[in-house]
Each structure stands twice: as C-alpha cells, then as structure tokens.
Amino acid sequence: EVQLVQSGAEVKKPGATVKISCKVSGYTFTDYYMHWVQQAPGKGLEWLGLVDPEEGETIYAEKFQGRLTITADTSTDTAYMELSSLRSEDTAVYYCAKDANGLDYWGQGTLVTVSS
Amino acid sequence: DIQMTQSPSSLSASVGDRVTITCRASQSISSHLNWYQQKPGKAPNLLINAASTLQSGVPSRFSGSGSGTDFILTISSLQPEDFATYFCQQSYSNPPELTFGGGTKVEIK
Predict the structure, then answer these.
(1) Is A89 in a helix, a strand, or coil?
(2) Which of B3, B98, B99 to mutate to test the interface with A (most CBs of A within 10 A)?
(3) Which of A91, B8, B30, B107 lies at 20 to 30 Å from A44 by C-alpha?
(4) Is the pLDDT of residue B104 over 90?
C-alpha cells in the first residue's frame, strides 16, 4: 500500500523557517518525482516545486525561488520541504504528492501557521 | 508560464443533474491535463489523467475530454458524494512544472 506520511502541524513566527517531512512507503521512492503543493485557508492549490529523488534535481515555482528548498533522502525514503522568511500569507496546508502522470498519491497535509 | 482558467468558480446543482466544468490553458498543452476532486479537510484525489483516462476506482459517471487548450470534466448524473471542489492541473513541461486551475465548487441546489 502506497503511503505518504507528513510531519505534524507547525506554528512559526514571521521570519522563521519551517521544514516539513514526507516519508513514503509502498513504492520505489526514486522512481517518481515528488511535488509539494500549498493550499491557503479557503483557497485553491498552488504548486511549490518538485524533486527528482533519483537525481536530486529540483525545480521551484518562480514565486518561491530563494525561499524554498526541497530535498530527498533516499536512505530513509523521505522528502523534505523547507520554506524560509515566513510571512502571514504562508499560513497554509502543505502537501507532498507523488507524480505518476498525475498526482496519484498525496500526504495527509501539514498545517503551517505563521503568527506573531 | 502556462495559466489555467477554470469555470465556473462555483455551481449549484441537484442530484441527478449533468454537470460540466471547463478548463482553458493559456497555450496548447496537448493532453497533459489532470482533474482532481477535493472534499473539505482532505487531500485532493486524482480522478482523470491525460485529459480523459479515468483512474481506477473512479465511477464511470465522471469523464474528461479535450486537447490543446480546452478541456471539460463531465459528471453525467450528480450523486450526493460528488459535492466537492474540482481542480484541473496541467503538466505540459518536462520535468513537469505544474499549474492548477482556480477550482470549481459544486454545491447542492
């Protein structure tokens, strides 16, 4: 059974950095891109970026360039998303999702709240 | 960047109605278009990929069509469990830099 299990909710102050993990099981981690998607409260889905776990290659959405780092640890089958210089508008649920010509499996989501 | 325009942003319909949701890309994306359903508090669920391929376990009342810039998601006979928000998403580039449509909330009339 394919599973993507994310780390728990976070509360951060403006200017801080958050790092979320996404541990996968049930498939070969290095065979598929892993994407990260943001969903602000009551809003739509926004793509943050992806990592190729086999090559370590990353691509980031232009909006998040410079603040976003996505990595993959093949020794633990875990992907990470780190977002720095947090501001109130980064308050959102963050999802990891496996790409098999469509995002066919998703993590449960991690709520990040940015508040002073 | 490829922009995705989804319409309508919301609609009210009754059980048994036929529902169509459209998605337009700012440039041709061939058939690199996926549809998702999302219910409150849950992650999105992939319904259709490659514009028209129904995912395993998705009821046959869902169908997708289109290519190039214009795409349609059709629910042939709306069921109570179909009240949700639907998103389109393009993945034209390689590696895929994704863009989502704004979403369509399907509500009970």
Answers:
(1) helix
(2) B98
(3) B30
(4) yes
